[in-house]
Amino acid sequence: MRTIMTLNQKGGCGKSTIASNLASYYSANGKSVTVVDLDPQGCSLEWLKARPPERPAIHGIRGWKDEIKIPKDTDVVIYDAPAGAHGKDLTPLLKRVQTALIPVLPSPIDMRACAHFIQDILTAGRVSRDEVKLAVIANRVREHTLIYQSLETFLTALDIPFITTLRDTQNYIRAAERGLGIFEMAPSAVEFDLEQWQPLIKWLNSKRSTPQ
Ligand SMILES: Nc1ncnc2c1ncn2[C@@H]1O[C@H](COP(=O)(O)OP(=O)(O)O)[C@@H](O)[C@H]1O
Ligand SMILES: [Mg+2]
Question: Taking the complete model, does pTM exceed 0.90, yes or no?
Answer without folding.
Answer: yes
